[in-house]
Prior knowledge:
- This protein is an alpha/beta fold.
- It has 12 helices and 15 strands.
Amino acid sequence: MKKLFPLLTAAAMVFSLAGCGSSTAATAATSAAAGSTAAAAADSGTVANKDKPLVWFNRQPSNSSTGELDKQALNFNDKTYYVGFDATQGAELQGKMVADYINAHMDTIDRNGDGVIGYVLAIGDIGHNDSIARTRGVRNALGTAVKGDDGKADYQPVGTNTDGSSKDVVDGKIGNLTVRELASQEMKNSAGATWDAATAGNAIGEWSSSFGDQIDVVVSNNDGMGMAMFNAWSQAQKVPTFGYDANSDAVAAIADGYSGTISQHADVQAYLTLKVLRNLLDGSDVMNGISTADDAGNVLTDSDYKYVEDERSFYALNLAVTADNYKDFMDSTVTYKPVSAQLDATAHPTKKVWLDTYNSADNFLGSTYLPLLQKYDKLMNLSVDYIAGDGQTESNITNRLGNPGEYDAFAINMVKTDNAASYTALLNQ
């Protein structure tokens, strides 16, 4: 009888107050009923959706115009975290990799002998923090950055800048050669999807037709776009091409002239995405199996990741992949050995997770991140429903979260970093 009394009391209140015709009273009755329903749920062991573990991953909740973190989304509940990678550290690595290559090939890199090292840049998404960081990293390293009052480099695309007149970049200098960003654009297709490889392939075709022998270096915010430009033009022209993500096809292409990429330690990111959820579902410390060994011996080190407490965010650390070490990165879907031990199913029983990726066509998520998640979910005894979006609208994803009560935890990858509320609103119902 203990469980029935609150419900009966709330029902009696609704009947009595509704009869008096007071909207205030009706509201009070509804609140009382909701509260008693929550109490009943607590008694039965049911967890409200708003209290379930939530990990944002790959796209950090933030303002796409300013980059300011969405602290409300990151603190949705006391079981909410973000998993990504250190974008600034990775961007600096990519920029250094390009600059080091130019320095090492000063005698041969200027294809037309005009004294200008011209590069083109494929920008993934001008509203994405990771894309912004990579654009800034390249411009800072090559000396082409225009700094604002905040000391940060401009990240806007320049369109075409063959004459060096753009206000978003300046000419840099490496040795006795001028470095110029000849062209850059956001790679967004006609349907609105960003980081679009096909658009990058078309762009390099247009750029090479207009000023081909001026292009000495090709740089991309990711490997999907980088490989599209490499396959469409730069491989045949033997123009050094640099990407980001260390996708398996890009790493393999280093043997054929692709000049370098950055591993954002996707194996560590995928592990953290599910391990954080597993820990929260088990009621254990969130750092279990991360900074300290779990009962299967899984543990990471400070060289693998960092945790920023006031951002509630885990960041994997990046590694440069070049001709010197690419053979160590040939398969991007292999789990990270220090955290590949199977958890005991008795101590860690199966739980159900809802997880989405923003775009089924995203090369990094589809060919690298997702296969890793599918391996780690088995190691952690998690039953995961994988949902793939269209890269254009949040509703294409949120419409498929019709019954959040069916799941024990959630891992969310948004289309746009501003749109966290589209998901938390569903969990608050």
